[in-house]
Automatic annotation (TrEMBL), chain B:
Membrane topology: Multi-pass membrane protein
Protein name per its UniProtKB record: ABC transporter permease
Membership in a protein family: Belongs to the binding-protein-dependent transport system permease family.
Keywords attached to this entry: Cell membrane, Membrane, Transmembrane, Transmembrane helix, Transport
One GO cellular component term: plasma membrane
Family matches, as NCBIfam families: Opp4C
ABC transmembrane type-1 domain location: 96-294
Main location: membrane
A Gene Ontology biological process term: transmembrane transport
Organism: Paenibacillus agri
Transmembrane regions listed in the UniProt entry: 35-56, 98-123, 135-155, 167-185, 216-237, 274-297
Subcellular location: Cell membrane
From TrEMBL, chain C:
Source organism: Paenibacillus agri
GO cellular component terms given for this protein: plasma membrane
Biological process, per Gene Ontology: peptide transport
Main location as per UniProt: membrane
Stretches assigned to the ABC transporter domain: 5-256
Lineage: Bacteria, Bacillati, Bacillota, Bacilli, Bacillales
Alphabetized Gene3D superfamilies for the sequence: P-loop containing nucleotide triphosphate hydrolases
Membrane topology, from the record: Peripheral membrane protein
Keyword tags: ATP-binding, Cell membrane, Membrane, Nucleotide-binding, Transport
Protein name: ABC transporter ATP-binding protein
From TrEMBL, chain D:
Pfam families in the cross-refs: ABC_tran, oligo_HPY
InterPro entries in UniProt: AAA+_ATPase, ABC_transp_ATP-bind, ABC_transporter-like_ATP-bd, ABC_transporter-like_CS, Oligopep_ABC_C, P-loop_NTPase
Gene Ontology BP annotations: peptide transport; transmembrane transport
Protein name: ATP-binding cassette domain-containing protein
Source organism superkingdom: Bacteria
Keywords: ATP-binding, Nucleotide-binding, Transport
UniProt xrefs under SMART domains: AAA
Organismal lineage: Bacteria, Bacillati, Bacillota, Bacilli, Bacillales
UniProtKB/TrEMBL annotation, chain E:
One Gene Ontology biological process: transmembrane transport
Organism: Paenibacillus agri
Pfam families xref list: BPD_transp_1 (PF00528), BPD_transp_1_N (PF19300)
Protein name as catalogued: ABC transporter permease
InterPro entries in the record: BPD_transp_1_N, MetI-like, MetI-like_sf
Keywords of this entry: Cell membrane, Membrane, Transmembrane, Transmembrane helix, Transport
Length: 566, 307, 327, 321, 318
């Protein structure tokens, strides 16, 4: 998981595996899917280029190369060892995984043609395809998988992989150096491998079924407790994905060339390039320097993109949601009624939909509308209602005091808000200040340009509300992650824990759906965090590209091998 | 020599009248300098606009009005509205209050500190010089970014109201940013020291304070005016940099810098020039007016200048 | 002797914030070939401006030659185009300035500064120019010429610098050398050396010298013909012997009397009372009237004109005009 | 005979010569090399010599504007160079300096009234309320008008500026005035005014002058005793009449003959010195003047002449006398 | 032997030691560390990682360790980039240097020319126009000028590429490569030059005005030299003298990178890397870079003092 300093919504291939944060700053939440009313002008259907002749000559000339913009990757292209999600974007093209997820987030086979999960939900057995090869032609076997899993339990492992948190049996012993290998990992034959956990975990399938590192290449120099040698291999990756690394020019571009040993066959376009871009990429799309870019789905952006004539546009909803973390230790927001009043009293429609020009919608549960677990059944939409908010505050004992600010026991109702510096935060503060004043709450905002400073402040506990947004969520359980990684410690509702574990204990989707609905209703009422918004994005790409789809979970990587240039 | 205090006021008055006629003469010369006067008038106008103008605006409450967002200039909103439907003209005027105050205050402060330390170093030489200049060297090597963030964290820790933080940060920045100014003043000081009139001051047995303030300082004032007026644009803009780091003013309070920053994307830049032209022009007009006025002021303060 | 230069009705004015300064006002004189003409007069009377007007170096904007003609070898310098005038400057017309210390470029070596006019006007190549420059340096009486050529101005004393200035001025063999107070900044022994040198060059090359000074001792030593200026006007002119033995204008007389002379010690020196009038507040009158012992009512209201009073001497004073009228 | 006002004994002032980036000291400029002067109250001592011969340095070292290298300077019996700074400051009003260039010695941004009066205030010699009157009085005694008081230096002519410089010194009621070429930057007619002012002030206030100049005609007019310097050393000292009538040193003779006399076509026996004044950093051996002396002999090149009394208080340093 | 240089060098080293300690403490006391921002991690994992990276040790101990390694030439690995710090410098700094060097050079040349001409024609329309343009450039934020030029020259007119350092995917070498880089450099260089031009032009103009009043200019004219020669040989040399001191101060700026320009033009420079590392609290890289700049700053200060002594013949002997 990379430390997150404002990654921007405009980045191309967001959907990499494993290496992004659960939470990113609110500022990234420009875009959100349209669960609510879709405002006029926003895109609900894909749009096809109207006039390919307008395509700039630069883009016209390229016949076997596709260029996509990406924030500067650092060159640490070894999966599990990356500090930045952008390196993950690169490695997602270089490495295939055992299991992938479809556009609904449901696990589907990839390198593993099938898998079994034991009755108790503790043992996962993967059956690999035959004749799998790394890009150098060497075979990929269960030993490589075992090595990949094992190395993540090394004492010196400093990556952000979730695998160690799965508690594979014997992992701890290995890490402490008391065991030579991990008891729970068993290579059954060159095509079959299993892992046994200590407690059931529904996310284990995808976590275990991630990229595979070649033991012959990455494990050659491996000694327990010493992983420095891997750093030297970061810029010379050996993978099994659709593309091979051709050249990495720091700060400029990452060049790929098709991998003829890819198990699904060599990709249709020979060359692919990630070009380093920062922030606004309009100029690069307009001049044909990149073939593909994402924009927040504002009416203007869509208008302008349509006006270009040479791009296809597809609407897209990231699998994230925005929320405000509440400091449950503080008297004034400890009370559920106050939190509900805050939600009623905040004109979220204005902030996240109107001011965002339709590039967002209001969130009420900890899941993205595209998740298989998403539901609106029994969910209170908390429509903007200042009267209701006032009533709730009265009920909670906060009575109107001097100069319009409510008081209880002589203490004024003052909310200390933290946000990351961004245009959206500016809008939020402007509106919130007005909204809160209307219902008698004193609003004290503070903004931070620096994510680290913000987090430090939050860790210090000196806040009432702080805006965050999650990073990409694959499994619905990840929507509650902040309650388990220590970020939110003060919400102890036994019912929540019970339901959460129940949902993880089974891998049956229908069963899980039912549990999650209940969880969502609980959260919607209790509001241990305050839900704010979903983002809405569009992808625009060179009209010559065919077969392009973008998965919310794995981004371009899924369809990239199929892309063609007309 | 006896002091005859009863006579003092009378003589004072005489002296003062001599002075004031001289002052009047300077003012007259200033009034004669058309260019400088036009600069002065523009500065005055900017001040009037920003401090008095909003009183006549119906939009001073800065109410958010989603129905009116991003409207082009028209009868109702002379300079159009922003992304939250707020009146740009009103916001430009309100922004000017902060931008002008901050710009002038930080300019004056940094020039003051720089001049003081530079003067002391250049005048006393020796140990004071060594210490000041070496501290300056040290300060030059310190990166600004962590300093800013540490300031920010401390201010947040100490619960300084957000409205005041910018001023404190500006103050601290001026305190940190003196080395450049100080070096320049010191250089000037070193050459002034060698001038014959300073030798004369030694022969007369004048006190250091008088040498410093009555003889040396007046001679570096032209330099200070030039430096100060050149800095004003940077000072106004630096506020927006502070805002960018979350150390400046809190929204929805506008400043010229953050109003221009709001147009930091291709679409606003291209399609909504009314978002950035008014604040941009305001800064431009202020900077150029203050510089022109500064030049004029320097000429007038220079007893020799005759053009 | 032929006229080398003839100045007629020259006026040079400065347009300042406070008004128009008539620095040189209707001045006419001539310089004959091989002659040394001295201009004397108090500081600020327009001596330098006259010289600058001849060189075409009056500061612009601000200063302007408003009328008159400067005929040099039959050509009016004021009518020449910039290029021709520039090619004459430093070549046929050369000038030495008052302040040797500040008149040489501090960051350029002496040798190069001497070489410049040689290269521009005589089209010498670098080597020839340097050889000539070194020759010139030794010609002006400085030993170690090669070493001096490679030094910077600050490394030389004032007297040496002034000699370098002379070397530059005579380098191209000028017809007219204008020396604007060449010795004022120097001490007496060096002054004697320099004046000696000027005399010698004049004798060698037959050039004419227009020497500007306020020191009557220098005038007596150098001049053939003397012009006395006061407040932008010529008040008296004449052959040097005549003028010194029989000064007519009260100002000239005052000047001669106020100079202390060795072995002629007086208890108190004569001094002309009062101040030079403010050039901005000149009314039509004799400009010297408020300092003059012989001031008459007419002096206050009308300006006298330069009149020939015999012996080749001309005076601008009502005393003599009256005399003439009455005579 | 009244007590000695100023006593300068074997004063030396060497300036280091540094070179290059490293500021190495490569030599010394012997600007003043063993000079002794004795001044009685009411006397005027004239110091003449070529440019660069160290006249100004003598003056400046006496006043401790630069630190001496060796020797002793006693003002009314007090050794100025060992006095702590604050005491020295207290003594300053009693000994004043008048500069050669009246313009550069006045701060262009200080009104002349302030320039003249400020030292009074700093020395507590006068109350703030009385300063203006005193300044006006002094201005008038120096021949300036009261309306000049609030003007800036650039608004004055050279002669007036020099008067301001004199007024600035006089207002402190000094006993000694060192005048460093006070008239050499001035016009002839103004020069006369200033010289007259000097003698008038001496008469009315009993001032003592150390008058530095290179113009012998001026010195002759003002001074009672005259010292001639060459290359940092004194070569001749005598009373005025003695020196002008019987100059002994060849350099003095050359100086005298170099002064231009305003009589045209006067045929004079002039000694024009050849060559340049040698560098004080590298003075000639023996008699420092031998390189330019028309009468130099072998002995001059090798032996330093002794500064001795040639009779009747006429001191000279020359082998040939 | 004079001690001037030795003394200065000694001071320099002391200052650098002081600076390194101060800077290290500054970074250490900036809120948050490399682990803090990664809020996906559990508290236990965070503790584990801090142990691995040694972030839990006291500041002074960490500083000592850093200093020891640094004195041995080891500036460590970047935590975020997983590369040796020195290699990262090598990857990015030359790009920044290229941009800065070219634009600094242009800035100086143009500022000198404009300064000379507008001093020569003081108060002419040219002078006024230049002054207005300079103030305009000074009163607009840099991103703004950047956007403006991208919009006009790259997007609308398509004369110049909008960003980057080479054409994406290009394999050009030799002369072709140079041409490509030059084309890509054009826009950022223009913007940087515009930004730097203002104060320098004003500076040269006022120096030049002073110099043009000097007597030796009059002498040069009296020699009959061409006006151009008078201006550019006689006047300019003197006007440039005081500016020589500025040269030393430019040194750190040449390698410091420019955050905003690099960001707008997608230039792979050190400025962006520094900013990014700062956000991440990538201490080894931050320390390495800051000390590098500090060293350059100190050298630059010394250099500017020395340069002045070399450049002005009058100063040398004193
Ligand atoms: N650039 C200028 N602007 C305005 N007035 C000027 C300028 N140059 C000269 N003057 C005026 O012209 C008059 C004559 O000056 P000029 O320099 O010719 O005097 P001068 O006789 O050479 O004096 P000095 O002996 O001091 O050199 C003076 O009153 C002076 O004020
Ligand atoms: N601060 C200094 N540093 C080095 N050398 C100096 C310094 N001041 C004076 N000198 C040298 O000392 C010598 C004597 O200088 P001084 O100014 O006393 O001469 P002077 O007789 O007053 O000459 P002038 O008539 O030109 O004023 C000169 O050679 C000069 O170069
Ligand atoms: Mg003159
Ligand atoms: Mg002297």
């Amino acid at each position: 998981g990379g430390n997150n300093a404002n990654t921007d919504g405009n980045d191309a291939a967001k959907g990499n595996t494993g290496t992004t944060n659960t939470s990113t700053a609110q500022s990234t939440a420009t875009n959100a899917p349209g669960a609510e009313v879709v405002p006029a002008g926003a895109l609900s259907e894909p749009f096809t280029a109207t006039d390919l002749s307008k395509l700039p000559a630069t883009a016209q000339k390229r016949n076997d190369t596709i260029i996509v913009g990406l924030t500067d990757p650092s060159g640490a292209f070894t999966p599990y060892f990356q500090q930045s999600g952008y390196d993950g974007n690169v490695s997602s093209l270089l490495y295939a995984s055992l299991v992938t997820v479809d556009e609904k987030g449901v696990p589907t086979p990839e390198l593993a043609e099938s898998w079994d999960i034991s009755e108790d939900g503790l043992t996962y057995t993967f059956h690999l395809r035959k004749d799998l090869k790394f890009s150098d032609g060497s075979p990929l076997t269960a030993d490589d998988v075992a090595f990949t899993w094992t190395i993540q339990y090394d004492k010196a492992y400093d990556g952000g992989s979730q695998l160690p948190t799965l508690n594979v049996k014997g992992g701890k012993a290995y890490k402490e150096g008391t065991a030579q290998s991990i008891e729970g990992i068993k290579v059954i034959d060159p095509q079959t491998i299993s892992a046994t956990l200590e407690v059931p975990n529904a996310t284990a399938l995808v976590t275990l079924g991630s990229n595979v590192l070649s033991k012959a290449y990455y494990g050659k120099d491996y000694k327990f407790g010493h992983l420095e040698y891997i750093k030297k291999l970061h810029e010379h990756p050996l993978g099994d994905g659709p593309y091979k690394l051709e050249k990495f020019i720091p700060g400029q571009e990452v060049r790929f060339v098709a991998n003829e040993n890819y198990f699904k066959g060599k990709p249709k376009t020979e060359h692919f390039i990630y070009k380093t871009t920062e922030g606004d990429v309009w100029q690069f799309l307009e001049t044909g320097e990149v073939d593909y870019a994402s924009f927040s789905a504002t009416e203007e952006n869509i208008e302008k993109l349509k006006g270009l004539g040479f791009v296809n546009i597809i609407p897209y909803t990231p699998s994230t949601y925005g929320y405000m973390q509440v400091n449950l230790k503080h008297e004034q927001v400890k009370d559920k009624l106050v939190r509900q009043a805050i939600v009623y009293g905040l004109d979220r429609q204005s902030i996240y939909v109107d001011a965002a020009q339709g590039a967002g919608s209001v969130a009420n549960i900890p899941a993205s509308p595209i998740s298989w677990a998403y539901t609106e059944e029994g969910i209170n939409p908390y429509k903007y209602d200042p009267e209701k908010a006032k009533q709730l505050l009265d009920e909670a004992g906060w009575k109107a005091g001097a100069n319009g600010i409510r008081e209880k026991d002589g203490k004024p109702l003052s909310i200390h808000y933290l946000g990351s510096k961004s245009k959206n935060t500016d809008i939020f503060i402007a509106v919130a200040k007005e909204n809160f004043a209307a219902i008698g709450i004193d609003f004290q905002p503070e903004v931070f340009a620096d994510f680290n400073s913000l987090v430090s402040k939050v860790e210090g506990g000196d806040y009432d509300l702080v805006s965050f947004s999650t990073s990409m969520l694959t499994d619905p359980s990840e929507g509650f992650m902040q309650f388990f990684n220590g970020e939110i410690k003060d919400y102890d509702n036994p019912k929540f824990i019970e339901l959460y574990n129940k949902a993880l204990a089974t891998t049956d989707i229908e069963q899980r759906k039912v549990v999650y609905k209940e969880l969502y209703q609980l959260f919607n009422d209790e509001l241990p965090i305050i839900f704010t918004n979903y983002k809405k994005t569009v992808y625009a790409y060179n009209g010559r590209i065919g077969n392009l789809t973008v998965s919310p979970y794995i981004g371009l990587a899924g369809s990239l091998p199929e892309w063609t240039l007309k | 020599m006896a002091v005859n205090s009863s006579l003092a006021p009378v003589r004072r008055a005489g002296a003062a009248s001599g002075r004031s006629s001289l002052f009047r003469q300077s003012v007259r010369r200033l009034l004669h300098n058309k260019l400088a006067m036009s600069g002065f008038v523009v500065v005055l106008f900017m001040f009037a606009l920003c401090f008095v103008g909003p009183l006549f605006s119906p939009y001073t409450d800065n109410k958010i009005n989603m129905a009116m967002m991003n409207k082009a200039p028209g009868l109702k909103h002379w300079l159009g509205t922003d992304a939250l439907g707020r009146d740009i003209l009103t916001r430009v005027m309100q922004a000017g209050r902060i931008s002008l105050t901050v710009g002038l205050a930080s300019m004056v402060l940094s020039v003051f500190i720089g001049a003081l330390l530079g003067a002391v170093a250049g005048y006393y030489r020796g140990v004071a010089d060594q210490i000041i200049m070496r501290v300056a060297d040290l300060l030059l090597t310190i990166p600004g970014l962590p300093l800013l963030f540490i300031f920010g964290a401390l201010l947040s820790e100490w619960k300084i109201p957000t409205d005041y933080r910018m001023y404190i940060v500006m103050l601290m920045l001026s305190i940190v940013n003196w080395p450049g100014m100080a070096r320049m003043v010191r250089g000037q000081m070193l050459s002034l020291r060698e001038r014959e009139f300073m030798q004369a001051a030694v022969v007369l047995g004048l006190r250091d304070r008088r040498k410093l303030f009555n003889h040396l300082l007046p001679n570096i004032i032209p330099l200070l005016i030039v430096m100060a007026t050149l800095n004003i644009g940077g000072a106004i803009l630096s506020e927006s940099v502070l805002s960018f780091f979350g150390l400046g003013v809190m929204p929805p309070t506008p400043t010229w810098g953050n109003m221009i920053d709001a147009a930091n994307n291709m679409i606003d830049f291209q399609q909504r020039p009314w978002l950035w032209i008014p604040p941009g022009l305001s800064i431009f007009a202020t900077v150029i007016a203050i510089n022109i006025f500064g030049d004029g002021l320097r000429d007038v303060l220079d007893p020799k200048q005759k053009r | 002797m032929n006229n080398l230069m003839r100045i007629d009705g020259l006026s040079t004015h400065f347009f300042t914030e406070d008004g128009e300064v008539k620095a040189v006002d209707d001045v006419s004189f001539r310089v004959r070939e091989g002659e040394t003409v001295c201009i004397v007069g108090e500081s600020g009377c327009g001596k330098s401006v006259t010289a600058m007007s001849i060189m075409g170096l009056v500061e612009s904007p601000g200063g302007k030659v408003t009328s008159g003609s400067i005929e040099f070898q039959g050509e009016d310098l004021l009518q020449l185009d910039k290029h021709t005038l520039r090619s004459m400057r430093g070549h046929e017309l050369a000038m030495i300035f008052q302040e040797p210390m500040s008149s040489l470029n501090p960051v350029i070596k002496i040798g190069e500064q001497i070489m410049e006019p040689l290269r521009v006007h005589l089209k010498l190549n670098k080597k020839e120019a340097r050889a000539k420059a070194i020759e010139l340096i030794s010609q002006v009486g400085i030993s170690r010429p090669e070493q001096i050529a490679d030094s910077y101005p600050h490394e030389l004393s004032g007297g040496m610098l002034q000699r370098i200035m002379i070397a530059i001025a005579i380098s191209c063999g000028p017809k007219l050398l204008i020396a604007d107070e060449p010795t004022t900044a120097l001490d007496v022994t060096i002054q004697a050396q320099i004046l000696d040198m000027l005399r010698q060059f004049k004798a060698d090359s037959g050039m004419s010298i227009l020497l500007i000074t306020h020191d009557l001792g220098v005038v007596a030593e150098m001049a053939d013909y003397v012009i006395v200026m006061y407040s932008g006007k010529i008040v008296e002119e004449g052959e040097v012997v005549e003028l010194f033995s029989n000064p007519k204008h009260p100002y000239t007389r005052g000047l001669l009397k106020s100079k202390p002379v060795i072995n002629q010690r007086q208890e108190e020196l004569y001094s002309i009372p009062g101040q030079v009038p403010n050039p901005l507040e000149l009314a039509p009158s004799c400009y010297f009237h408020d300092r003059c012992e012989h001031c008459m009512p007419v002096c206050r209201s009308k300006q006298p004109v330069l009149q020939d009073v015999g012996n080749g001497q001309k005076v601008s004073c009502w005393l003599y005009e009256e005399a003439l009228i009455h005579a | 005979m009244p007590e000695t006002l100023l006593e300068v004994n074997h004063l030396k002032k060497y300036f280091p010569i540094t070179k290059g980036l490293l500021n190495r000291t490569v030599g010394q400029v012997k600007a003043v090399d063993d000079i002794s002067i004795r001044l009685q109250p009411g006397e005027t001592f004239g110091l003449v010599g070529e440019s660069g011969s160290g006249k100004s340095t003598v003056g400046r070292t006496i006043l401790r504007l630069t630190e001496k290298t060796a020797g002793e300077v006693k003002f009314k019996g007090v050794d100025i160079h060992t006095l702590p700074p604050e005491e020295l400051r207290g003594l300053r009003p009693k000994m004043q300096l008048i500069f050669q260039d009246p313009y550069s010695s006045l701060n262009p941004r200080v009104r002349v009234g302030d320039a003249i009066g400020e030292a009074l205030l700093d020395h507590g010699l006068c109350s703030r309320s009385d300063v203006r009157d005193l300044v006006l009085e002094t201005l008038e005694s120096c021949g300036l008008s009261s309306y000049h008081i609030d003007r800036f230096p650039h608004e004055f002519s050279g002669g007036q500026r020099q008067r301001i410089g004199i007024a600035r010194a006089l207002i402190l009621n000094p006993e000694l005035i060192i005048a460093d070429e006070p008239v050499s930057a001035l016009d002839v007619s103004i020069q006369a005014q200033i010289i007259n002012l000097f003698s008038k002030l001496q008469q009315s206030r009993g001032l003592t002058y150390l008058f530095i100049s290179h113009d012998l005609s001026v010195v002759e007019h003002l001074c009672t005793t005259i010292g001639v310097m060459y290359l940092g050393s004194m070569v001749e000292t005598a009373s005025r009449d003695e020196l002008f009538r019987h100059p002994l040193h060849p350099y003095t003779k050359a100086l005298l003959s170099a002064v231009p006399i305003p009589i045209p076509k006067l045929k004079r026996e002039r000694i024009v010195l050849k060559g340049d004044i040698p560098s004080p950093a590298n003075p000639p051996s023996g008699c420092k003047f031998h390189t330019r002396c028309p009468f130099a002999e072998e002995v001059c090149r090798s032996q330093v002449p002794v500064f001795r009394d040639a009779g009747g208080g006429h001191f000279v340093a020359c082998h040939l006398v | 032997m004079s001690t001037y240089l030795t003394k200065r060098l000694l001071y320099m080293i002391i200052i650098l030691f002081g600076a390194s300690l101060l800077i290290f403490c500054l970074y250490a006391s900036t809120p948050g560390d490399f682990i803090t921002g990664n809020i996906k991690l559990t508290a236990e994992r965070k503790a584990e990682l801090r142990e691995i990276y040694g972030l839990n040790k006291p500041v002074l101990e960490r500083y000592g360790l850093w200093m020891k390694n640094a004195l041995h030439g080891d500036f460590g690995y970047s935590l975020a980039q997983q590369k040796p710090v020195l290699q990262l410098f090598n990857d990015y700094i030359w790009n920044s240097f290229l941009l800065a060097a070219v634009s600094t050079f242009l800035t100086w040349v143009i500022a000198v020319i404009i300064g000379v001409v507008s001093a020569y024609k003081q108060y002419s329309w040219f002078d006024t126009l230049v002054m207005v343009a300079i103030f305009a450039a000074m009163s607009l934020p840099s991103f703004f000028i950047g956007l403006f030029l991208i919009k006009i020259l790259a997007v609308d007119l398509k004369w110049l590429p909008p960003g980057g350092i080479i054409t994406t995917g290009s394999n050009a070498t030799g002369w072709e490569y140079i041409k490509e880089v030059v084309r890509h450099m054009a826009l950022p260089v223009i913007v940087m030059t515009l930004l730097g031009l203002g104060s320098l032009t004003r500076y040269f103009r006022s120096n030049m005005i002073d110099v043009l009043r000097q007597d030796y200019i009059r002498t040069a004219r009296a020699k009959g030299l061409r006006e151009r020669k008078v201006l550019f040989t006689h006047a300019l040399r003197n006007a440039l003298l005081p500016a020589i001191t500025l040269v030393g101060f430019e040194l750190p700026a040449l390698f410091g990178g420019s955050l905003i320009i690099e960001k707008i033009f997608n230039w792979p420079g050190i400025g962006q890397l520094y900013m990014q590392s700062f956000g991440l609290r990538d201490y080894p890289l931050l320390m390495g870079f800051t000390m590098f700049i500090a060293i350059l700053t100190v050298i630059g200060t010394l250099l500017s003092d020395l340069l002045y002594r070399i450049a002005d013949p009058r100063v040398r002997l004193q």
